[in-house]
Amino acid sequence: MDMPLINRENKLEAFQLLYQITPYIAFGFMAANEAIFQASQGKNSIHIVDLGMQHTLQWSSLIRAFVSSPEGPPMVRITGLTDNEDNSKLQTSMNVLLHKYVKESRGNLKEILLSVKKLSPTAFTVVEQDTNHNGPFFLGRFLESLHYYSAIFDSLEACMPRNSQQRMKIERLHFAEEILNIVAYEGPERIERHERVDQWRRQLGRAGFQVMPLKCTSQIRMMLSVYDCDGYTLSSEKGNLLLGWKGRPVIMSSAWQVASV
C-alpha cells in the first residue's frame, strides 16, 4: 500500500464514515460536550481551546445545546491549535497535537499539561483510545495493537459486510496508517502514542488536576440503542467513561478540573 497517496480529504471522508456507522466518535463528542456544557452553566461567555481535533464535527451539537438552554446561549469562542501550515482549511482539518507529544519519557506531555493548568480552565476534557501503544518495544506494541484493533474490526464485522466499500474505506484510509505508525515507526516519527485511562489519571493528577465525574451515561446508552448492533459496552472507572466492544475498552472519555489546594 502506498500510504502517501492517502490525502487529507480521503482521511476526513473515512473519519466521517466511522462517525456515522459506529458510536466510537459520537461517544467521545457526547461525553466531552456534556462536561463542557455543565461547566459553562451560568457563564456569559466561554472560550474553548481545541488541542487536536482534525475537524469541527464536534462543535455543532454543543452550540445547539447552548442555543436551547433556558438561560440563553453564551458568547462562544473556539480556538483550534494546529501545526497545519494551510490555515485556510482550519475549519475542516486540524493536525493532531496531543499524541505526538506523549513520548516514553512523558516530559513533553507534562509541560503541556502544566501549560493548560496555567490557563485555569473550568473544564479540561480528554478523549483517547484506551490502549497502551506507547511502549518502547515493538513486540509489546504489536500484541497490544493486535488485541485492540481486533476488537474494532470485530465490531465492524458485526454491522457491515466485508465487501462494503464504506468498510474498506474506514479500514484502509483511517485505521491502516494509524496501525502502521504504531508498529513500524520509532522515535519522533511515531506519533500515535495512545495511553490507557489509568496512565492519563496518573499524569493529570501529577500535573494538578482532579477528575470531574461524567454523568451522561443515560444519554450515551440511549445513543447506543440507535445502532443496530449488539456488542457495544459502556462502563465507568473512577468517574471516567469507557466505551468498548464485548467488554474490551476502545475509547475513554474524561473531564478534569484544576485541583483545589
From TrEMBL:
Extract the ranges annotated as region (SAW).
184-257
Subcellular location as annotated:
Nucleus
Please tell me whether the keyword Transcription is annotated for this protein.
yes
Q: Which PROSITE patterns match?
A: GRAS
The Gene Ontology CC terms held by the record are: nucleus
User: What single Pfam family name could you report for this chain, choosing any that match?
Assistant: GRAS
Motif VHIID boundaries: 46-50
Region PFYRE: which residues?
Answer: 90-181
Q: Does the keyword Protein biosynthesis apply?
A: no
Keywords (alphabetical) are:
Nucleus, Transcription, Transcription regulation
**Location of region: VHIID:** 15-80
Regarding protein family, the annotation reads: Belongs to the GRAS family.
Q: What is this protein called?
A: DELLA protein
What organism is recorded for this protein? Vigna mungo
Q: What is the lineage of its organism?
A: Eukaryota, Viridiplantae, Streptophyta, Embryophyta, Tracheophyta
